[in-house]
Each structure stands twice: as structure tokens, then as C-alpha cells.
Design goal:
Layout (H helix, E strand, L loop, with lengths): L13 H5 L7 H6 L30 H12 L16 H11 L1 H4 L3 H4 L9 H36 L3 H28 L8 H12 L3 H26 L3 H30 L3 H21 L3 H6 L4 H9 L2 H9 L4 H7 L5 H13 L22 H4 L3
This protein binds fe (ii) ion (2 copies).
Length: about 375
Amino acid sequence: MTTLDENTEQLKSNLDLIGREDINDIEAVLNFVGKYDVEGFHRVPDNCPAEFTWDYEKGAKPQLDKLYEKAKKAQWNGQTDLDWSIEVDQERVVIANAEANPAQAQWDEAALAGTVLEKWDDKRFIQFGIENQNWLLSQFMHGEQGALLCTAKIVETVPWIDAKYYAATQVMDEARHVEVFSKYLDEKLSGHYPMNAHLGLLLDDIVSDSRWDMTYLGMQIMVEGLALAAFGFIHMMTTEPLLKKLLRYVMADEARHVAFGVLSLQEYYNELSAAELRERQEFAFEAAIRMKDRMVMQEVWERMEVPTADVMKIMQSAPERDDFQILLFSKIVPNLRKLGLLDAADGWLRTKFTEMGAIAFEHLTDSTEDEDAFADGSPADRQVA
Ligand SMILES: [Fe+2]
Ligand SMILES: [Fe+2]
């Protein structure tokens, strides 16, 4: 195990890293509200130098080369490979999903007591479910645009030609993902939400970091690792056939993206000092908390006019909700372990994920062994359903 030089060790507190001492302080999460970009765009300084390489030897990084060759065959077309003629009745989907997943749909009556939800009728609960769909798909779409920008940045900044080649295929994948989520929102759902404040903060941090590996760590390992688990979960729960297929196709691409992150960083992180690894650990922890905070989905509560105090009461008395949030880290933790980040620098990150209750996932299969990542042919050709 690497040990930190005593002179360089500075233990940062939760307050330093995430702006609050208690990671479960829901009031602090709800109070952090994003700014609307009234001009219709959002600019972030990109501080990392673009790097040319004169070493054009293809296959110098064999695993990345293999992934690039697979990715070329795995392209699909969001316009023609999905059946956009399927009609989506959001109200019916909310009801059918609740019937198919009773455990997830059940509200704890004791938790609702004394809140405005106590007086809600079925119609209002269905509206909440519809807003939930609009919000979730909007955040997927914004996250995909984050991935598009980050991967374009990796093409510029990563030093190796094999990684530049692979990243270029991922840029295409992410364009397709933004396209299909945006089309689904516009044609099948009933409204957009702006970028969630916590997700926005994280994406800004990733884009503006000056170290090329931080783009990978933030995007491929953390954001896409969580997205892969979330897509898998929604894919399993939803009864809506178009969304089910769309998610399955996107997941096949995301498996490759996360594998790309692990394969690229593995070797590089072996060479870093304990102090440098500690910075990566802190970045990973901060990213994990931002993504956990996003799941409070404060914008939905706000639109449904539920006061903060009521949201807190409901959240705090819904432990199964917490279990679901933790499940979303099931892809991230084994990959951080594979990269050596859990145990580097005195095992600081292991302690943090233990506090979060997510350490149990560490021995699950990591993404370098994900079958989807190395599959030949596009999901359409493979008839992935
Ligand atoms: Fe994506
Ligand atoms: Fe991706």
C-alpha cells in the first residue's frame, strides 16, 4: 500500500471538499439551486492544453486498439434502428410501471403524514410520476451532452494515438445519445427540465480541470459508471418498449466508454505519487457526492410545490430510497478498486465509500470484463432487445 509523505498529507474535511460536513444533510442539498442560463448557453473555461503526438504507431496500446476496432463495428443509427412510431401515453406508463414494480412505487404512509402529499389524490401522484419521467430523461440528455464535450476534449488532450482514435468513436456515440434522448423528450414526453444544479457543478469541474486524466476520471469512471447502472435499472423497471430498447442500445455503448476509462487510466495511475493519487481520490469522492445529491431531484419537488420541510421529512423516512441510490454505485466502486484508487494513499477513498455504504460492491466484476464493451457488431445487428 502506498503511504503519504507526512509532510504532504493534508486531510481535507467534508466541508472543504463538498461544502458541508454531513454527507446526508438533505437541507443543504435542497438549498443549493442552479442558476438558469437565460441566454440559452453555458460557457466553461477549458484549461487543458491540446496535445499533438508524433507517435502514430497504431496498436501501441493493444487493449485500446481492440476497443477502437470493436467500436467501429458497433455504430447504430438513432433515427432508423429504433421504432419511433411507438406511441407513448405518459399517464399509462406511470400506472403500468407502478403495477410492474409495486415495491418501488409504494409510498410509506407514515412518511407522508403531515406533508402536502397526504392530501394528494391519484391524479396528483400520477402528475408527479410524469414530472419524474420528464426530469430523469432531461438529466440523461444534459449528462450526455456533458459526455460529448468531455470526450471531444479527451481527443485533444490524451497523449496516445490509440486513445485519440477510440475517443473519436465515443464522440460519435455521445452525439447519438444526445440526439435520441432529446428526440424522446420532444416527441414522447411533455416538458424539459434545466440541468440539475449538482450535476452542473460536477460537469463544470470536470470540463475545467487542467489535468487530462481528470476528464476520464470524472466522466468515464464516475458519471458514465453511474449512468450505466442507472440506465440498467430503468431498463429493467420500465414497461415502455421504445425507452427500453433505446436504453439497451445506449448501455451497449456506455459499457465500452467505461471500459475505455479503466483501460486508459490503469497504467497511468501506477506511476503517480501518493499525493497525486490522493487528489484523484478527493475528486472521485466529490463526484460521488454530487451525483448522490442530484438524485434528490429538487426541481421536481419544486414544480409540484412541495415545501422543503416536507421533502426532508419524506426523504429521511424512506430508507429504501437510499438503498436505490447506493445501488447506482455498483459499477463505480469495482472500477475504482481496479484503478488502485480505493486503497492508494492510506485507503482514504475506501473509508469514504464505507461511510457512504457502497463498499460492498468492490468485488463485483469491473468494466474491463464487460461483455458488451467488446462485443462485435452494433446492438441492431446483434438484435439486442
Ligand atoms: Fe452516452
Ligand atoms: Fe458514454
